[in-house]
Amino acid sequence: MFSVSTEVEKPKLIPTKIWKCKNADCKAWVREEFAEAEQTCPICKGPMHRSMRHLPAVQNKIKSQPRKKKGEFDF
């Protein structure tokens, strides 16, 4: 018989700043880099507080610049 290895490489976890809902019944949290300026829970609209979690790193995509119309040039 053949042995098939199904090991999945686990991502490296790094300490990450987050905002976490203060309501014990609500499990919402968001990475600080994706949080809104006003920290209110996106689910229950309650207050949030800073915390830390060990999470996999995310790669932020660079927003592309709007395309220029034909004939438009920067000088």
From TrEMBL:
Domain of life: Bacteria
Organism: Paenibacillus montanisoli
Protein name, per record: Cold-shock protein
InterPro entries in alphabetical order: YdjO (IPR025916)
Pfam families to which the protein is assigned, alphabetical: YdjO
